[in-house]
Amino acid sequence: MKKSFIFSLKILLFGIILPFRIWQFSKNKLMSKADTKSITNLLDEDYIATSWFDWMIDAIIFIMYPIGLLIVIMFAIFGIDVLYKKFIFLLLASIVLYFITLIISFARELGGSFMLLHLNVKKIRNLLENNESESN
Q1: How many CB atoms lie within 10 A of CB 75?
Q2: Arithmetic mean of pLDDT, 41-62
Q3: Residues in Cβ contact with 89 at an 8 Å cutoff, skipping those fewer than 6 apart
Q4: Other beta carbons within 10 Å of 129
Q5: How confident is residue 72, by pLDDT bands cut at 50, 70 and 90?
Q6: Residue 136: pLDDT above 70?
Q7: 69 with 94: CB under 8 angstroms?
Q8: Nearest of 70, 49, 61 to residue 24 by alpha carbon
Q9: CA distance 29 to 62
Q10: d(CA 99, CA 128)
Q11: Is residue 64 within 8 Å of residue 72, measured between CB atoms?
């Protein structure tokens, strides 16, 4: 029971570092193909738009932290003069910036799940139509 409780806490606490891990995975994926001369070589021949969209999401996730941090720093320097308002805004902006990669990645995975569901439904429909035409 104690091990299960500790393991449950580890899973919950991992959710705090998960957005940074997602950013690292996107960075590693982009860095592994950074020497590719043409974007066309990265695309899957069967699912061109889907593979491009996947690369685009990784690029957005990778760019999100540096640009977001730059905006937060610029606001900290040039923003509101009232200290507590500035602090609250910076805190909220930092939280949103940190967890936005999780939201974007979840949306991508959800879209991929819907695509797989669509492909499976299409395959099942074709099999049913073939069985129906053979029985006639």
Answers
A1: 14
A2: 82
A3: 75, 79, 80
A4: 10
A5: confident
A6: no
A7: no
A8: 61
A9: 10
A10: 44
A11: no
DSSP the chain: -HHHHHHHHHHHHHHHHHHHHHHHHHHHHHHHTTT-S-GGGGS-SS-HHHHHHHHHHHHHHHHHHHHHHHHHHHHHHHS-SSHHHHHHHHHHHHHHHHHHHHHHHHHHHHHHHHHHHHHHHHHHHHHHHHHHHHH-
Q: Using one digit for the tens of pLDDT, what is the confidence trace for 104-130?
A: 888 888 877 887 787 788 888 888 888
- Tokens matching residue 21: 């891990």
Q: How many residues does the chain have?
A: 136
User: What distance separates the 2 farthest-apart alpha carbons in the chain?
Assistant: 79
More confident residue, 47 or 64: 64
The two three-digit tokens of residue 10, written as one number: 């580890």
CA distance 13 to 85: 29
Q: What is the mean pLDDT of residues 46-75?
A: 84
Cα separation, 128 vs 132, whole angstroms: 6
